[in-house]
Amino acid sequence: MVKLSTARIAGGREVRLVEFDEPPAPSTIAALRKKGVAGVEITSRCWDPRAPSLAWLADLQPVVLLVWARGIVPPLPADALRHVERLDILARTRLRQPVDVSTLTEVRDLAASADQIEGALSQMTHLRYLYLDRAAEPSMAAVSGLRELEYLRLELRRGVSTSFDFRCDDPPLRLRELIVMDAPLGSLAGLERLAGLEILVLSPDPSAPQGAPVDLRPLSRLERLQDVRIVSDAQFEHISVIEGLPRIERARIGGWCGDRPAGPEPATTP
Asked: What is the spatial distance between Cα 65 and Cα 110, in angstroms, rounded to a whole number?
């Protein structure tokens, strides 16, 4: 028995998605391909626990792969990842073998924990959306060279004590939204190079000790910035640069609110 649904990929295209309640037979896979099913939700019912394998995935050639299984997931076959454009791996999911990013050349949308993948993300040249959990390195270095990246959410693992470094050699200049969670806050130098940024959310670990005041001047060059939220008890310098941003609509910096009021209501004709 199979359950069909839909999933969305980068660009807004919808893909038909299948969830199995047992490892699929070749005839089932052939029938699904004829129906245009190109997405798979991996659960613990997708493999035989006596001989755990996901080799059948290569026959389905998924475009969307959602790995939401409990237990230890067998290795994802490299041949099955050749056409994948969206890969989601639930944070609590345990993989027997990390996914080598060199097999993810077509992926545009990736959500995973840092320990679930291995290799340089710069190999994923089509990547547009990245949600990386339990990241060990508090910096933008991991996304250096990702020139198509538009959305980035980084959540640092517990215990990281080094301030986040926004500098990198080849910054993602198309980035429109940046969210960094649980990283100690220090210098914002490097953000000025992300000229296309529209949304910036920084939420440091509240238990981390506060360092020197944070200089906000790197944000002064972000002329497309519309929404900036820095959830922190740190001290901030040069907060007036936020008021000078031409497109800013929402601004919350520590306890300071700089939301731009809405314009007057249009006159109505009696």
From this structure: 10
Can you say how many angstroms the Cα of residue 54 is from the centroid of all Cα atoms in its chain? 25
Sign of CA dihedral 9, 170, 152, 133: positive
Cα–Cα distance measured from residue 178 to residue 151, given in angstroms and rounded to the nearest whole number = 6
- CA 227 – CA 225 distance, rounded (Å): 6
The closest alpha carbon to 94, from 62, 63, 70, belongs to 70
Q: Are 245 and 259 in contact (CB under 8 A)?
A: no
pTM: 0.90
How far is residue 72 CA from its own chain's centroid?
Answer: 23
Contact 219, 242 (CB under 8 A): yes
Mean of pLDDT values over 2-11: 84
Please answer whether residues 59 and 35 qualify as being in contact, where contact means their C-beta atoms are separated by less than 8 angstroms: no
Residue type, 68: W
Q: What confidence score (pLDDT) does residue 97 get?
A: 95
CA 180, CA 22: separation in Å to the nearest integer?
39
